[in-house]
Design brief:
two-stranded antiparallel ribbon; 8 helices; single chain; ten-stranded mixed sheet; about 300 residues; alpha/beta; Rossmann fold; globular
Length: about 300
């Protein structure tokens, strides 16, 4: 009987494959810098991108984007291509680093004892002390485990996040952890051929944890966001189904990518033999930024 390579090992191998690309990108782009801060008794790291032409005399939006399990900040920058948008649109983007080996986020433990949630809050404080961050326009998003962490932080600190996005999210935050005073606008992407976080739920991820059916989970999020349950179709490219939930306290858009894998739509591809196909039917970062621009803390 042929032995199967453990899924966690596949994630590590994928990371090693991508390492030379990311080192090249980090060395080449001079306006990226690593920063550190002390949070919950640990020294935490982040990768920062401030556009050279950013107007720092005025309040500026902040986008926080979180890597997936076994990935890291420079890899998330390469995959998502947020920096190019930041340069074009004039916002700051930061890529925080998870902990452990392989790197990961704790999206399941409740606050106030969740060190990752505290780190992200401390990171916002740190950047607000150094740059004129607009507190009304702080946005969060992530891939896989990072997408799940975006949910966890938005539940814990809804007053700090104007909107969040998630791509191929691994949703493990119990809804009882999500007793927030404000529903947070959200934008969800998932490929229906995701081999790591199955679209129909069940065991998935590197540790074969039980993950929800994505359609069911999005419906639960819609109910928690005060939506009626009805949807309207978002016009998009063939192969992408977009739904906008109606009558919500917080806006919710949801995209399903036909044949899409555990990847960032429109981004740089991950190894297909592990993650499935990276399709360019839709640009997740561009669509997220368009959504974010219409949402500040003072709007729904």
């Amino acid at each position: 009987m042929k032995k199967r390579t453990p899924r966690i090992l596949l994630f590590i191998i994928a990371g090693l494959i991508l390492l030379p690309i990311d080192l090249y990108v980090v060395m080449r782009v001079a306006d990226r810098s690593y920063g550190t801060l002390s949070s919950a008794g640990q020294r935490r790291r982040y990768l920062l991108h401030v556009p050279q032409d950013a107007d720092l005399s005025q309040p500026i939006p902040l986008v926080i984007t979180l890597h997936g399990f076994a990935q890291w900040p420079a890899n998330q920058a390469t995959v998502s291509q947020w920096n190019a948008l930041a340069d074009a649109e004039g916002f700051i983007v930061v890529y925080p680093a998870g902990t452990g080996f392989p790197k990961r986020w704790d999206a399941a433990s409740p606050p106030p004892n969740n060190a990752d949630i505290q780190f992200l809050s401390d990171l916002i404080d740190e950047l607000e002390s150094k740059f004129p961050i607009d507190p009304e326009r702080i946005y969060l998003n992530g891939l896989s485990n990072g997408g799940g962490m975006s949910v966890a932080f938005s539940c814990a600190f809804p007053e700090r996040v104007a909107a969040f996005g998630s791509v191929a999210g691994a949703y493990v935050t119990p809804w009882e952890n999500c007793q927030q005073s404000r529903a947070v606008p959200a934008l969800i992407f998932h490929g229906d051929a995701d081999p790591i976080v199955p679209f129909t739920g069940g065991q998935g991820g590197p540790n074969n944890i039980v993950l929800p059916d994505i359609k069911t989970w999005v419906s639960q999020l819609a109910a928690r966001s005060g939506c009626s349950g009805a949807t309207t179709t978002i016009p998009t490219a063939p192969g992408v189904k977009g739904d906008r939930f109606e009558d919500c306290a917080a806006d919710l858009d949801y995209y399903v990518i036909a044949g899409g894998g555990h990847t960032w739509p429109g981004g740089n591809p991950l190894p297909e033999w592990i993650t499935g196909k990276t399709l360019d039917l839709i640009d997740a970062s561009a669509v997220m930024w368009e959504f974010f621009q219409t949402h500040a803390l003072s709007t729904k």
